[in-house]
Structure to design on (158 residues):
């Protein structure tokens, strides 16, 4: 167990032993991202659908606009946790709710690049219902999942 100290506070022994809190935060953040996805996809679909409908059938409009709405919704929904971790001192809605945050290995704030990296690797960590991430955390004294190791971050109690 390492102590992470900076102007942002410090993590003491046991502060990274928060697997349950991380799981709950992940569920909440997943819901936030899903809602964001829905809003963006519906908005893009409505906006582009109006332009694309013209003389096309409803099915043709859906087939033309649907993929664009899905891609944009996925991108924006996926960027929400990245931007929140960067702008909210390592917190997302879920992390704030359960009292945890992401810090860099030196205890400082998480940068945009590190937040992006750790969240991109969530696709790997999330495989098999997060069993890959749980296995990675169980082999790390600081409970780092693969994304945390690659990004040089750790999740601690606030």
């Amino acid at each position: 167990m390492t102590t992470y100290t900076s102007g942002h506070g410090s993590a003491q022994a046991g502060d990274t032993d928060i697997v349950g809190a991380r799981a709950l935060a992940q569920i909440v953040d997943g819901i936030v991202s899903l809602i964001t996805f829905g809003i963006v996809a519906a908005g893009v679909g409505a906006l582009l659908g109006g332009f694309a409908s013209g003389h096309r059938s409803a099915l043709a409009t859906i087939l033309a606009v649907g993929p664009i709405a899905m891609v944009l919704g996925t991108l924006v929904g996926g960027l929400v946790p990245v931007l929140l971790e960067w702008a909210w001192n390592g917190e997302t809605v879920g992390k704030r709710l359960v009292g945890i945050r992401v810090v860099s290995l030196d205890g400082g704030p998480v940068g945009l690049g590190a937040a992006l990296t750790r969240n991109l690797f969530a696709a790997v960590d999330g495989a098999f219902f997060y069993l890959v991430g749980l296995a990675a955390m169980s082999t790390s004294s600081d409970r780092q999942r693969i994304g945390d190791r690659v990004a040089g971050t750790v999740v601690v109690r606030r």
User: Anything to note?
Assistant: The chain is about 65% helix and 10% strand. The longest helix spans residues 19-53. The chain has one domain: 14-157.
